[in-house]
């Protein structure tokens, strides 16, 4: 999932900046977190993949928290690659994979608790 997300971001840096790097200080008028979650198919796919990893015993903990942490690392990596294109990261896709592998290794060594008592974030 993250490689496709990265391919979009790196291939469409202006669109990525607009969607993911524009400050959002509050929910859009008339929208709830549940509405936003329902309209976020990429996060749903990521959570389902993480749930499969938890069910298979590869990861332990709250799937939403794990998915959010993976998204955080992926987004941060892609944002830096877009913002600092001349920094010597090496091949951008290889760097994204390296960061995801690093995060998965870290997550697989821990039991990840829920981020909130009630999962209300998307």
Distance between the termini: 17 Å
Shape designation: globular
Q: How do the strands of the widest beta sheet line up side by side? A: 1-2
Order of helices and strands: HHHHEHHE
Q: How can the largest sheet be summarized? A: 2 strands, parallel
Helix content: 55-70%
Number of strands: 2
How large, in whole angstroms, is the Cα Rg? Answer: 15 Å
| Averaged pLDDT | 88
Q: How large is the share of residues in beta strands?
A: under 5%
Catalogue the unreliable spans: none
Count up the helices.
6
Describe, in plain words, how this protein is organized in 3D.
The chain has 122 residues and is mostly helical. Helix 1 packs across helix 2. It is globular, with a radius of gyration of 15 Å. The protein starts with a helix and ends in a 10-residue tail after the last strand.
Blueprint (SSEs and pairs):
Elements: H1 2-11, H2 13-20, H3 33-38, H4 41-55, E1 60-61, H5 63-83, H6 92-108, E2 111-112
Supply database-style keywords.
single chain; globular; two-stranded parallel ribbon; mainly alpha; 3% strand; 122 residues
Quick summary of this structure?
The chain is mainly α and 122 residues long.
């Amino acid at each position: 999932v993250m490689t496709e997300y990265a391919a979009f971001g790196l291939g469409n840096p202006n669109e990525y900046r607009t969607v993911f790097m524009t400050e959002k200080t509050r929910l859009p008028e008339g929208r709830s977190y549940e509405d936003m979650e329902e309209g976020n198919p990429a996060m749903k796919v990521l959570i389902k993949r993480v749930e499969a990893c938890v069910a298979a015993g590869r990861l332990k903990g709250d799937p939403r928290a794990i998915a959010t942490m993976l998204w955080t690392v992926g987004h941060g990596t892609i944002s830096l690659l877009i913002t600092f294109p001349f920094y010597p990261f090496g091949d951008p896709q290889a760097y994204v994979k390296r960061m995801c592998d690093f995060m998965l290794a870290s997550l697989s060594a821990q039991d990840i608790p829920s981020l909130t008592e009630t999962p209300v974030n998307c």
